[in-house]
């Protein structure tokens, strides 16, 4: 009878967890910035599933280490921001190396356990789920509780399902960041080429910036021609006036008729 009640309790929790996982998945799959995605993931898991502390550690293949990338819960202030541990060390490291999940309900009885995140953490139960992308481990989702026997098999199944969705979300975010980086680099290259071309043209035509627009040039030429015409006309008029003194009025040559 006790086992029957326990099974019903697990089934009820399983249904509740599936509903929560669906909500979490729907939320994180839409986040395309990697760091925001990782933090939103651990925050939602810790908040909605009620775990004591949730951490997501990313694998650095060059150093072969797992580094804290996002954390939510009681250890946030205790664990160093740059916390990392070697692959193969501790339960987290073992999970990354083997590619298998670990559920340990009494860490003091497991020789693989090592105190992480600082000596003050009161961990007694720990659950580790490797996050895989195309068959390769890229991160580990770590859950820690301060009491013994804190986890059930249901927790493991739910978190493994969630781990698959996290991997897809990480892949999408990495692809998005790569695309954005390529766009930025292309725009920077185009800007540099544009500036180089403008500089080259300026060196070849140093007086190009002093040239007037075509319509201004026409106006200038028209004004110049008009001024020349006005000067010629003025000169002609002056010449005509100066000669008036030498011209005799026709009346002077007409003799008056005598009657």
Structure description:
By secondary structure, the chain is α+β, with helices and mostly antiparallel strands. It has a domain at 2-181: Beta-Lactamase. The chain contains 5 helices and 6 strands; from the N terminus they run ααβββαβββαα. The protein has helices spanning 2-28, 34-49, 90-98, 153-204, 214-243; strands at residues 53-60, 65-73, 84-86, 102-104, 125-133, 136-145. The longest helix has 52 residues, at 153-204. The chain is elongated and about 95 Å long. It starts with a helix and ends in a 16-residue tail after the last helix. Mean pLDDT is 81; it is low at 215-226 and 244-259.
Short description:
With 259 residues, this protein is α+β, with helices and mostly antiparallel strands. It contains 5 helices and 6 strands.
Question: What are the SSEs and their pairings?
Answer:
Layout: H1 2-28, H2 34-49, E1 53-60, E2 65-73, E3 84-86, H3 90-98, E4 102-104, E5 125-133, E6 136-145, H4 153-204, H5 214-243
Antiparallel strand pairs: 1-2, 1-6, 2-3, 4-5, 5-6
Helix pairs in contact: 1-2, 1-4, 2-4
